[in-house]
Input
Amino acid sequence: MLLTVPLLSKASLFGSLINKCRQAGIASLSVTTREASSTVRTTLEEKVGLPPRPKKPLTPFFRFMREQREKTKANNPHFSTREIVREMSQRWSEADEVTRNRLQDEFKRELQNFVEAKAKYEATMTDTQRAELKLLKDEIQEAKERRMMRKRIIMLGRPKRPASAFLRFLVQERTNAPQTANQTYREWQAKCAEKWSRLSDKEKQPFLEETRREITVYK
Output
């Protein structure tokens, strides 16, 4: 079967490879980390009263890496995780057909078992459980997209929206009429808001004009 994958840069492809190695238990992980990872993987199913979902078997490539990891690490005790992955990737590219065929056959057998187990697992799910599980997954995906958007905004240097005229007035009042020791910030702000409401349009004009100028630059 011919598999196609999207083209990635060497850096992103190698980083993805290391992450997959960690997920497959190939990279060195502490017991605590593994337990925490396991909890995360089963949380959604547990919340809707389901047992853990059947796990998809490792591909031939990752089976090879799992077999070679300890040997590679023993022969290169000072290698980092990245260097170990690079070494095992090189060995995989040089592996003979016998090894590749053996791992491919193991993968096919386990994949067939996985397909059957998955079908039985999904057959036990009620419509309510499916709906609840989908809702939880959607919420997680939305949260992930929001985090990615925040990171992109920071990375791209999105400009900050200018302060409103009232906030500019508050900044001025911190100097002209600062908060006293007997006042809470809320009390001081309420007093400033009351003072702002009593200002004439002419007195508010400088604050409004400054905000308008900065909004033009911001847009």
User: Anything to note?
Assistant: Residues 1-10, 26-40 have pLDDT under 50 and may be disordered.
